[in-house]
Amino acid sequence: MSTTRQRILDTAEVCFAKNGFDGCSLREITSLADMNLGAVNYHFGSKGELFTEVLRRRIEPMNRRRLELLDLAIARHEPESAPLEEILYAFVRPAIEAFDTPARGTLLGLLRGVHEGSFDPELFNEFFAHVLQRFSILRDASGGLSELEYLGRIRFVVGGMIHLLADRMWRGSSLDTDTVTQLVVAWAAGTFRAPILLVENETPGGQQ
C-alpha cells in the first residue's frame, strides 16, 4: 500500500470514528492528512468509497477470524453439532482481540456506527450479511429460534459487547482477554438460552 493511501486511511479512520460519516468532510480529512483533495479522489474516488475502505481494513480481518474459528468448532464436533458456547466464542473472540490493539479507540467508534445503523444498509450487508448467515447455526443450537429472534439476540449480544469493551477501555481494567471472552460468552449463552418468545413469521408486536 502506498504511503499516501495509508496516510489518508489512517487520518480518515480517526475522523470517521470520532465524528461519524456525516460529521467528517473530505476537506477536513485532507487538511489533517496534509494532502490535497485530488489525492483522495485519485486513491478512493469519493468519501463513500473512502469510508468503505476504512471499514474494510478493520472489519474484514475480524470476520475472517470469526469464520476460521467457526469452521474449527464445527470440525471438532462433526457429525454432531458444535456446542452453543463454542459457536459464540468464534463470534465474540475476534472482536475482543481487536480491542487489544492500538486501533481499539477508532474501532470502537466504527463498530458503534455499525451497531446503531448510522450508515448505508448496503455496507452492513457487504461486511456482515455472510457472517450472520454462517452463524445462523445459533438458531438450532438455541432450540430453534426464528430468524427474527436470532437477529434480535445477536444484535443484543453485539451491543452489550461494544458497551462492555468501551467501559473496559475508558476506565481501565485488570481483566485479560481470556477472562473478558469467558464473561462475554457466558452472558451471550444466557441470552441465546432464554425462552423462545417469537415463532417464525411473527412480529415483536405479536401480529402475524
List the helices and strands and how they pair.
Elements: H1 3-19, H2 26-33, H3 37-43, H4 47-77, H5 84-98, H6 104-115, H7 121-134, H8 138-141, H9 147-171, H10 177-193
Output the number of helix runs: 10
What class do helices, strands and sheet pairing give? mainly alpha
CATH architecture of the largest domain: Orthogonal Bundle
Number of domains: 2
Percent in helix: over 70%
Q: Identify low-pLDDT runs.
A: 203-208
The CATH topology label of the largest domain is: Tetracycline Repressor, domain 2
Indicate the overall shape.
elongated
End-to-end Cα distance, whole Å, is 52 Å
Mean model confidence by pLDDT: 84
* CATH uppermost class of the largest domain: Mainly Alpha
Biggest β-sheet description: none
Give the C-alpha Rg. 19 Å
Strand content: under 5%
Order of SSEs, N→C? HHHHHHHHHH
Characterization of the model:
This protein has helices at 3-19, 26-33, 37-43, 47-77, 84-98, 104-115, 121-134, 138-141, 147-171, 177-193. It has 208 residues and is mainly alpha-helical. It contains ten helices and no strands. The chain is 72% helix and 0% strand. It has two domains: 4-44, Arc Repressor Mutant, subunit A, CATH 1.10.10.60; 57-193, Tetracycline Repressor, domain 2, CATH 1.10.357.
